Input
Amino acid sequence: MGRGSRRAGLPWAPTSLPAMRHQWCDVLGEGLERLRGQPGAALMPQAEQDLDGLRRSILFWVARPMVDLTIEAAASIPPWSPAAAIPEEFGLMCFAKPAGVFDWPVPGSGQRLPMPVDAMAWGIRGDQVGVSCAFRTDRIAGQLGPALARMPLISHPVGVWDLEEPVAHRLDGGAVSPLSVLGTAWLLMDQPTVVETRRIGGTETSGTATDVENTGLVSIIELRRIREADGAAAEEKSGGGRRYDKRFWVSGHWRQQACGPGRKLRKPLWIGPFLKGPENAPLTTRVYLWRR
Output
């Protein structure tokens, strides 16, 4: 199937997300119906619950500069608790640019392909949250069978977290894990000093579930314009009292916070880059020298 025919009218944009989700759920629902009475039907109840969660998922779009910050911050994220960070019970977060790479097991073969993380979905089951990575099918539409090519996204489970158990930072093959990227995105989007969030109405199609409030809305997560006072004010809360005779840039970094019942949960706070030192003092010039 040609690249443009299936995706006509559905560009990779926040306004397209409700319609993409609807299309995705329709194709997955048809596949579940074909499984009824088949040997794999024992998995139907869980698959139906997952599909229902996707239909009810809250939609998020992460803008390009915010993707860059999230990946950068994920490289140093301290242990954090999903229960303190997760924004919604079910969610689908799409990235304006890939937020990493994950291994996709090609159906019907033992092959695994590294695919870009275009989106991540999650859902709470009991005291755990399951996470999946997804890629846009228009990237390899010519290599997919008819059923898969009809879906705007293809996903694969990549992890399960206990809600109250702190998650330690993890690397995947030397690169930042997509799971760490998702946790970082959750934490950052809760900080108004770091991000700006606005909601827009997306293109929806008929037949979408009507029992979900704001099902056609998309929350756009954007990097907030850095103001000197934001990071400086947050940093001053830690005290110290040291005096400086020059101004200098403090790099973005995390500060650990305990929260929740018995302060057992961990919700790190991101401190953005800021200038430190007396207002009228000279600014320290930082020089980088590369040697071959």
In short: The longest helix spans residues 17-35. The helical segments are 3-7, 17-35, 44-55, 64-74, 82-85, 146-149, 178-189, 228-236.
